[in-house]
Amino acid sequence: MGKTIEGKVAFVSGGSRGIGAAVALRLASEGADVAITFQQNKDRAEEVVELIRRQGRRAVAVRADSADPDALVDALNGTVTEFGRLDILVNNAAAFPVGPIEQFGPDDLDQTIAVNVRAPFIAAQTAVRHMESGGRIINIGSNVAVRAAFPGFSLYSMSKTALIGLTKALGRELGPRAITVNLVNPGPTDTELNPSDGPMAETVNGFTAVGHYADPEDIAATVAFLAGPDARYITGATVDVDGGFAA
């Protein structure tokens, strides 16, 4: 089989580790040139860039805090300047506040909404100015937007639930331009922030149908499908890649 997105350009926010890094590497393996953003760890971001380049694709890492609208817009526009086009936007960067609702102040609320809601909106707004027919916007949500099985996720769940509405409405708006918009809700996924051998892992596994965490590559595979030509008739959809967590 040939590469499904040969010659396309992808932008992945928060692409230096975890699901974002896996997505960036998978899109590169399918033929895309990739720009990723990072906030702090430049070395990790450059490692991802190097792995992409070893696949024969172009890559760049840009320091950009998704809570800063100007930085995000500059990163997207810079990607177009660097690579000449933009075909795929993956809104992956996220804030992950967990705790009793009483502990969160207005600054916590503002930061979470800025990263998890405002940033995907602004990124999409900027990206569609450059996208042609066949463009793809893929938002990364969370299983807790579908099923809040544990206490302490009220702020995070609220912010990720907003992506359902954004995805549906943008899918409707951009459909006539043949730009699809979809949402991927990962379930428990083995990352640094949520390791499969962590203190809650056994309990979390019990909430899934398959009994174990996903690998980041499992999420990346779904994103790659939605980014490719076989997903051209899928838009406004939510895809749960959660091992049956919401079943």
UniProtKB/TrEMBL annotation:
Domain of life: Bacteria
SMART domains in the record: PKS_KR (SM00822)
GO molecular function, one term: oxidoreductase activity
The keyword Oxidoreductase is annotated on this UniProt entry: yes
Pfam families named among the record's database cross-references: adh_short_C2
Keyword Oxidoreductase in annotation: yes
Alphabetical keyword list: Oxidoreductase
InterPro entries for the chain: KR_dom, NAD(P)-bd_dom_sf, Sc_DH/Rdtase_CS, SDR_fam
Domain Ketoreductase: 8-187
Similarity comment: family membership: Belongs to the short-chain dehydrogenases/reductases (SDR) family.
Protein name in the entry: 3-oxoacyl-[acyl-carrier protein] reductase
Organism: Actinoplanes regularis
Lineage, highest ranks first: Bacteria, Bacillati, Actinomycetota, Actinomycetes, Micromonosporales
